[in-house]
Amino acid sequence: MLKERLLELRAQALEKIESADGLKTLQEAHVRFLGKKGPITEVLKGMGKLSAEERPIVGQLANEVRKLIAAKIEEKKADLEAKLLEKQLEAEKIDVTLPGRKITTGSHHLLASIIREVEDLFIGLGFSIEEGPEVEQDYYNFEALNLPKDHPARDMQDSFYITDEILMRTHTSPVQAHTLEKHKGIGPVKVICPGKVYRRDNDDATHSHQFMQIEGLYVDHHVRLSDLKGILTVFAKHLFGADREIRLRPSFFPFTEPSVEMDISCFRCGGHGCRVCKGTGWIEILGAGMVHPNVLRMSGFDPNEYTGFAFGMGPERIAMLKYGIEDIRHFYTDDIRFLRQFNRA
Amino acid sequence: MLVSYKWLQDYVDLTGVTPEQLADKITNAGIEVEHIDYPGEGLKGIVVGKVEACTPHPEAKKLHLCQVNLGSETVQIVCGAPNVAAGQKVPVATVGAQIANHVTIKRAQLHGTESNGMICSLEELGFDRNYVPKEYADGIYIFDDQVPVGADALPYLNLDDVILDLDILVNSAHCMNMLGVAFEVAAILDRKVRFRKPEVMESTDSAGSRISVSVEAADKVPYYGARVLTGIQVTPSPRWMQLRLIAAGVRPISNVVDIANYVMLEYGQPLHTFDLDQFGSNHILVRFAGENEEITTLDGQQRILVSDDLLVTNGKKGVAVAGVMGGENTEVSNDTKNVLLEAAVFDPISIRKTASRLQLRSDASSRYEKGVDRNRTAVAADRAAELLAQFAHATVLKGIVEQGYRTVPEQKITMPLEKINQVLGTQLPREQIVGILKRLNFTVKTEGETLHISVPARRFDVSIPEDIIEEVGRIYGYNRIPATLPDGTSSHAALTPYQKIRRRVEALMESTGLNQVYTYSLTTKMHASSYAVHHAATEPTQVVWPMSEEHEALRQSIVPQLIDVIQYHLNRQMADVKLYEIGKVFLPDAGSPRPSEEEHLAGIMTGKRTERNWEGEPESVDFFSVKGIVETLFESLAIENQVDYRPSKRAGMHPGQTADILLNGEVIGYLGTLHPTVQREHGLNATYVFEIAIESLLRRGATEISYQLLPRYPSTSRDIALVVKRSVAAADLYRVIREHGRPLLKSVRLFDVYEGGHVASDEKSMAFSLVYFDPERTLTDDEVNAVHEKILNACADELGAELRG
Known about the structure:
The complex is a heterodimer of chains A (345) and B (805).
Chain A: H1 2-19, H2 23-34, H3 39-45, H4 54-91, H5 110-124, E1 128-129, E2 135-137, H6 138-141, E3 166-168, H7 173-182, E4 189-198, E5 210-220, H8 225-240, E6 246-253, E7 256-265, E8 282-291, H9 293-298, E9 307-313, H10 315-323, H11 330-333, H12 336-339
Parallel strand pairs in A: 1-4
Antiparallel strand pairs in A: 2-3, 4-5, 5-9, 6-7, 7-8, 8-9
Chain B: E1 2-4, H1 5-8, H2 19-28, E2 33-37, E3 44-56, E4 64-69, E5 74-79, E6 89-99, E7 103-104, E8 108-110, E9 113-115, E10 118-119, H3 134-137, E11 163-166, H4 178-189, E12 202-206, E13 212-215, E14 223-230, H5 239-247, H6 255-267, E15 271-275, E16 283-288, E17 294-296, E18 302-304, E19 310-313, E20 318-321, E21 325-326, E22 339-345, H7 348-357, H8 363-370, H9 377-391, E23 395-398, E24 401-404, E25 411-416, H10 417-424, H11 430-439, E26 443-447, E27 450-455, H12 465-476, H13 497-511, E28 515-516, E29 522-523, H14 525-528, E30 553-554, H15 559-571, E31 577-589, E32 592-606, H16 623-636, E33 643-647, E34 653-663, E35 666-674, H17 676-682, E36 687-692, H18 694-699, E37 716-725, H19 730-741, E38 745-754, E39 763-772, H20 781-799, E40 802-803
Parallel strand pairs in B: 12-23, 13-16, 28-31
Antiparallel strand pairs in B: 1-11, 2-11, 3-4, 3-6, 4-5, 6-7, 6-10, 8-9, 14-22, 14-23, 14-24, 15-22, 16-19, 17-18, 19-20, 20-21, 25-27, 26-27, 29-30, 31-32, 32-36, 33-34, 34-35, 35-36, 37-39, 37-40, 38-39
Helix pairs in contact in B: 5-6, 6-9, 7-8, 10-12, 19-20
């Protein structure tokens, strides 16, 4: 009797579970068949009337039925939940091609990027970064650099004077003089001096009354011209590409002797001759030389004990060459359509 | 310096060296050849013709019918030149020839007569009009009679020449003449210089009987020499000399003038010729000019001198501004018979000052400024005398009348041999070094490891051992010097703390969307004195000789420059712009002409803060956008708790939307909205700015990071809404809440500000979220309530705040 009842309940339950269309009906089936007042509990309560032989058989069957129903409910529940989740996910679908909420960052000025690149290179080579005043004394801007008051080379750089003795610096070389002086005759001195400089020029495509310069100075025992050549080779390859070659040509600067100008093999045509290098295969990049003994002496260094090299370059020129920029005024007009092109520089 | 390749061959054998190769070698040895010019480029079919007959054209008054012998044939050419005549040898552009400006000559009919070619003027052959001698200026060119008929005309006009344009710097003044270039080229090529000493046939009459010299300014005039030449006939100079002068960029005038110029080009020694009969005395006195002394120079200009100017006089009045330009009163003319030839040495600095003050740069002054070869001055006078005898029929009176020393001793340099290799980084053997110096015509003696070098006066740029190192290096070739890396002590380097933190500030500004700019330090006086963080009582620093009013004074603030950049963008339909700059401002110092310099950070924002997109309308930047950036900056520097904002009134700023930024009570900057009238004047939209004296701030050094243990106990959060008078500032509430919340209050955040319907019209409601926390334990409700109560009471007592129900 009870056995039949259990089998009937099993069939009813399985049918009910199978047909459940939601978690709620499934829960109802759970309560109905497995609840404390459910029919299986009833069957178990009626077991007292059974014989000792029948009791374990019916008991076992009741447990099996209960377990089966519970397992089926779990199974169905998982199934229903999976379907539900799927439905939810379907509903949450978005157009992933719509534009995101991006954060527009500002750009770093191209000149700042070039200066930083040079600074970082030279820091790696053991040079510190020194800065100095933009309004200078005539002494540091000229005299300490072997440009006495009546030196004809002063013509080469017409200056913005504030008084007879004070002017807007015309190059960053006075920082060299200050730095040497600070070292009180004891080397090594290894510095890079970036900064703004000023000359009495009319602004046009190739001239600017304000521009940037980066000077380098290395003074120590036995610094050689060949070392300058080595350092400049590293510089040229770093900034303009690993297959660049350099060439030094003699030149004249009052603060160096010997003085040289450095050309690099054209990065556009590789040296065959093109518009960028005006057909020569070479591009003039910077001026350099061995520090003039007068400069060392005036700043407290003994030229018999120390030698050194110095070089100076124009970040604008480097930028213009590297990117084919046609007008130096762009750097100071600050058109954001110009600036933002170089954010990756 | 224009160097004729053909002329140079007078002094150096250039066999096997093309002009282009020569240019390359000269450049690599130190004097940049800026440009190579081919004067005959594009010309063809120009031959020497002889005018056999010349008759007036029957139909046209100004034209001539010429029968011209071209060697192989005789052709008829119609010629309009007034100076054409039978018997002349002339340059003829034959039919099919190309002349200057790519003009091709065709057979033509002129007034019914056939013309088979064209007799050419110098201009038609590409000569610059400014250099054409006046006898040929309005007509055809005429050759010397020995030129062969039918020959290619170009070589006889030096149009087969190549001109190298040398960029002469201060240290290469020795190459401002043909002999100097010859010595340089000879050293580079390792060849000999061909140089002949001039030979002067002097008469028995002595120059000293005609003239005497005295010099009052002996330290500025180390040598003054004069020759006297008589019986001169002034004519055009020989054609070969004219062509050489033209190639060098000098216009031929007459034999006397041309010879002086020619010798200057050849020797580098400026010479001056006076008409002796106009000299006005028989005594030359070189002295300083008197203050305001006047002289009329050759160009007809009246010059007013100062007491630093050197003046050549006849004892009474000036006859030449020494070394710069001669006087009109003694100028050589076509009628000149007797000439006084000056060959002198003047002080470079003195000449430079005079020439630049008078704005009178001549070929002479530019050579004196850079220096002349002391040992060549008297020789140059001899060379001119030789040429004047030959080409102007001059009688050369005996001797040079002179003051000072004709020659100077050679410069001696003693140095250790090894220094050369040490500085260059080379290992050149002794013989090679000595060989290079000998190629340069330096005399070298070696004594053990020491070099004794004697440098000719021609090379006045060489005076110290480093100059010798340069000479060896450049002739050996810098390209042959190895590239090495310094083997000195390795040194450590890093950015300074300031440089490091400044880079961080730049990155931070850019991360907030501001674009970095650089603007000019020099600006208008008006700009220079506006928007300063600390208004200066004194005028802005100004340059004495500005290029324009746009750039005459040093900025005390970056903001005016940024406003200009915004205006630039608005003029080009770019309305959403955000910029920042870190740069120096220059603050006048009452006690010194030199301003103090410090770096400021300034920013400017206008237009949209967000983009218009599919989610909705964009938002505009406003006061709080700019303030948010400033706050982010201070937070990143971990000094936000030391910073306060105080309403302030500043010129050019909106009086109700401007705050001073205070660090520990001291003003370090400001932020706010530009004044509406400023916006209107510049045609700007609402624009917001800030400027901070960042350098002094960052130089205080970074705040140390002190690590805090992660919290082990929960915090408690309470919200309160307070109703206060509208005049009460948020900062006041913050201050009171913080003050009375100590030590359990961990943070305060204002999350709502309300004015309107539910509060009185002169009041506002401000809602704060307060977080309480104790690192040692969990706070009880009673403890939190006690502090919270205390805060509410303080807000009520001090600010009249009421808890909003």
